[in-house]
Each structure stands twice: as structure tokens, then as C-alpha cells.
């Protein structure tokens, strides 16, 4: 192996102190990253892949971990090789951000909510690169433009909560790249992004790597991303490296059983060709009882007509409304009992807002929502509270939707206490049953959210949504942060519940292969409107709207020989959804191109 490696991890061992004694996060792992090379580290959540990267940044110590053995060698720009394990924290501060950049998985927790995007972007530039305020701001605008954020000058003045999840993630990527580090550690940087932006970000990182010679350590569970990005692949399982090889070797000739299983669990676009109804995914532990395809019924449970949701943009001294964000613009759809309607589209297209509007977690501006015979829009708060017993939501970021100070069993039982549906031993039994349902050990009931991996937290969120036996679940990107094997289990779990309990889902996602798996109907959203809607088979096998076609093209393929280059992705920048107060939006009009298959004829801006 080359000895000019930028970073080499040798026999790393990391331990965490818990109430039940020390737990080994990483047992014995060694690998190198060479200049201009992308090494992908793959494995499921809990395999130790993030722990190894946090050790290299020496951040693992802030999370209760300690580096118990091994060397972390890093080749600095000036000053030769340093063992980061023994480097003092002051020098680490210089290295972090300046020489090693890090892109974290959850952008909301990686950004500081009280500072503007501009301040957070310029901080590192002024600290490490000694730029003046004006130069740092100019560079920040340039960085935002590189990660394709529309209207970058305006974004600098905004706060993280004013951006969508995908935009926040792009800000985090811009921050990591600001000082042109020698090594970029990317921890699941595209999990929360939709296909088109993911494809762009991957192409962007690839281009920056070629232009600057930066080495990239890319942590992911998405095998399609690995196929797109990696030069070499390190497969981790339960704190150990089980296989390492070039990307072609791993994909075309995997040796370890775990690697084979990981590749088998990848949902592939087009696997469902010719079928009309969802069917469960093949799992590699194949002990789950698979359900037959789920036909559902043709009886509507949710009817949405002409739904519009806008957010005011305040400005001036009097904080008057100067414009509106047209987040959801005139959408209509129906969800049948026991069926799934998926809403897909890029971040910022309004799909999450649409989901929240259904439950009136954000108040729609106008429109009509009928759920199970009652008019949701006319209910008072007390009636709405009762209606929510039957309509639940699973949020995108499980860490933000769980209470950090409550034990998990209390979080799962809370809805039942709120609504008084169960009490005493019945309540305990039901909580235990829900833990079994989402395949979490009952010993986890006394744990807290920070003691779980991302995939495990998401299962708690699902258990909590199921606690009240709802008729409809709005699932907002509920599986986007899970690794393939866990994702397959969670999706199968959701489908099993649908088959048994007749639950209906509004499934909000940007993962086309997953949507193809679970949906009966699919609505494609762009800039607040549904541009195409119809039975899943029609939309996937015969997409009519140019945007749907572009979306299908951007889906990464889990084959290193079919990589997409930047020129294959000719996405138009998304126009701004902000319009002045008096703006009159045209109504959405559709033409029918097949049975129940409609395409928008109003100008959607694409």
C-alpha cells in the first residue's frame, strides 16, 4: 500500500462507558485514505462506522467515548505526520475544519439555531483563513452557489430553521468545504437529500475531489451511493472490518456473507415492473413472515381538494407581510383505506408541508380536507385533538421528535396516556408488544434516545405512531436515515401492519426505489404543485411530465460501471416559491393520460 496516505487508522479500539459497564464501539479497525481517493465505509447503523470517523476528529471523546487503543496517523500540510490520538485539543482545533472537514448526518443538529447561515459559514473562513468580513461573505456566497442553493445572498441572512432539510444539508457541506481541507469526512451526507440534489452533491464532491486532490472518507449505508462515489470500500460489521476492496471487487465479487447480504437488500428501481400492488422486500435474515401483496380497498379515507398552504414573509419596521412562500399550491388527491399514496419530489417542493397540512400541524391557507367522513378544516382544537387519535405522523428526524430526557418506554406510552386508551398493566403489555413489533429488544425500554443509533430511534418513532391504532399515518421521510437492511425491515413492518390492520399511509419520500416498493398511488411534487399523479405502475413505467422523467433519471444505480457524470444531470435550478402579496397563482389543471393517471397542464415552472 502507498505510504503517502493522508490518513491511516491502525488497530483502532473505541470504548463507551455506560451504566452497564464499558461497551466496545469499534473493536479493531485499520484502513488508509490516500490523496485524491474516496474510501467508502459501509455497514448498518451501530456497526461503528461513524465512531471511527469521530475518533479521527477526536470528537468521540465529547460523546462519552474513549480511544482505548491504536494509532490515528494524519499527514498535515506542513509539519509532517501527526498521531491524532496523542495530539492536544488546542492543536486539534486548528486541524478540525481547516485540515479535516466534517459533514455531519443531521444538519439541524450540526447548525447553530441562533446564528444566521452567513455567520456560521464565514466563521471558519475568518478563523482559519484570516479573511476580512467582506471577503469571507463573498466566499460564502460562492460556496452556496457551488452547492446549488438558490438566491445565496438572501440565504446568508436566514436562520437554519428557515431552510428545508435538503438546503440545510447543503449549507453543512458548504461549511465543510469552505477551508479546502486535505481530508473530508462525510458521515451520511446525502441521507436526508432527494435524488436530484443527492446526484448533484455527489457529482460536486467528486469534482471538488478531482480539482483539489482532497481525500474523502465517505460513510454511508446506501450501496447505490457507494457505487457512484467509491474508489475503495471498507465494510464494517459490529465494530470490525469484515471486508475491504476496490469498488468493483466489492460489487462484483463480494466475499463475506455480510457484504453479500448488504448488496441483496438494496431496493432497485424497476424491480416491481409489471405489478400493480406493493409487496415486501427480500430481507437477508429472511425470518420475517412475508405478507402477500396488499391490494387495499377502493374506499376513500382521505380526500384532499384544492389544498393551499402559504407562509408569510415579514419585512420592514412594522414586520408586515411583504410576500408569501407558496409552499403548497392547489393540490388534490385521495387516499383509499388500506392503501398508500406516496408524495415524491425534491427538498423544498412542499411535500412535508403538504403532509403537515393534512393534520393541521401547519394551518392551510385554503382548501378542503375530509378524513373518515369529517371535515378536518372546520374542527375546533378539541375536536382536532380527538381526530388526531386516528391520524398520526412519523417525522423525518427522530432525534428532534423524541424527548431527550424521557425513557423510551415513557415516550411510547405517552400517546396512550394522553388519550386514556390504556392504563396499568395493560399499558405496559402494549408498550412491550410495540417494542416487539418494531423489533427492538425489551431491554431498550429503560434507555434514552441518545443511547440508540439513528435506525433504532426511527423505530421508536414508528412504535409511538402505532400506539393509538391510527387509521392513517403520514410518514415524512421516515426511512430516509436508515440503512438498507434496517430500512427493508421497517418498510416490511409498515406493509405488514397495513395488511393486518388496514392502515392507510401518506408516504412522503425522495427515494424512488422505496416509493416504487410501497405505493399504490404516486404523486410527484414540484414547486408546491403535484405535476403528475396516478397508479404507481403508470407513473413509474410511463412517466409523462418532464420533471418526473428527470427524477427517474437521477436515481443512482448500485453498479460502479454505470456511474453518472455531472453532464448527465441537467437539472434546472428550482425557481423561488416566494411571490409578492397580491400574486395570483393559476389553478392546477390536469389532463388524463391513462386510467387515473393525470399530468399537470398549468405551467409548473419546470
TrEMBL record:
The keyword Coiled coil does not apply. Its EC number is 7.4.2.10. The keyword Cell inner membrane applies. Transmembrane segments: none annotated. Residues 9-263, 313-552 form the ABC transporter domain. One of its GO terms (biological process) is transmembrane transport. Keywords: ATP-binding, Cell inner membrane, Cell membrane, Hydrolase, Membrane, Nucleotide-binding, Repeat, Translocase, Transport. GO terms for molecular function: ATP binding; ATP hydrolysis activity. It is a peripheral membrane protein. It catalyses: glutathione(out) + ATP + H2O = glutathione(in) + ADP + phosphate + H(+). It is found in: Cell inner membrane. Pfam families: ABC_tran, oligo_HPY. GO terms for cellular component: plasma membrane. Part of the ABC transporter complex GsiABCD involved in glutathione import. Responsible for energy coupling to the transport system. Belongs to the ABC transporter superfamily. Glutathione importer (TC 3.A.1.5.11) family. The complex is composed of two ATP-binding proteins (GsiA), two transmembrane proteins (GsiC and GsiD) and a solute-binding protein (GsiB). This is Glutathione import ATP-binding protein GsiA. It comes from Shimia haliotis.
